[in-house]
């Protein structure tokens, strides 16, 4: 089950995500949007079961987003999180079928009760679905890392490809890959470097650049830590053995 957090304040979105108890609400991915346009883009691309949405935002309010969702017959439960205790907002939210209307700052227990209420409205709420989606994200992340091993790549960049929080990416990556995100990036680079050292005459400085390292000495340090040898020694040993 995927969650979409829509809030124009990045810090607010991060706080909301940290409040979600995954044991009580086992989501697979959390997407984050800062405005209605970003939210619509995510909803067109990914299945989302629950939306945690601010009401007053630039470029389209949370109420407008919900109207768009209903017009396009997207099956997603909406929970409003707002700093405005206005009766008109609450009335319209309920008219649009919102699960709940919570005032910021949101208490964790109130948020979890609202999420559990939303889950009861979703017929196919199953833990195995979340597990499958998390596994797919990790596999796609691995492919993205390999395809971009020639340059610097960050956890935030990869997480952005799947509209999830970097911390969540780290969590599922370790769970499904059995290795941390950063260690996998380094391993991927080193595997590529080994092949280049064995099968090409490319200089070590160019191999470093081809595997995302702007500093050859830093590349050599990582390589020795990975293999126990310098790049030059590794090339010599491999060719002598061959």
Strand content: 5-15%
Quick one: CATH superfamily of the largest domain?
A: Response regulator
Largest sheet: 5 strands, parallel
The CATH class of the largest domain turns out to be Alpha Beta
Q: How helix-rich are the residues, as a percent range? A: 55-70%
What's the total helix number? 12
β-strand number: 5
Going by CATH, the architecture of the largest domain would be 3-Layer(aba) Sandwich
Low-confidence stretches: 126-132
Mean pLDDT across all amino acids: 88
Spatial order of the strands forming the largest sheet: 2-1-3-4-5
What's the end-to-end separation, in Å? 51 Å
Shape: elongated
Helix/strand order: EHEHEHEHEHHHHHHHH
CATH topology heading of the largest domain: Rossmann fold
- Overall tally of domains: 2
Radius of gyration: 23 Å
Structural class, by secondary structure, is: alpha/beta
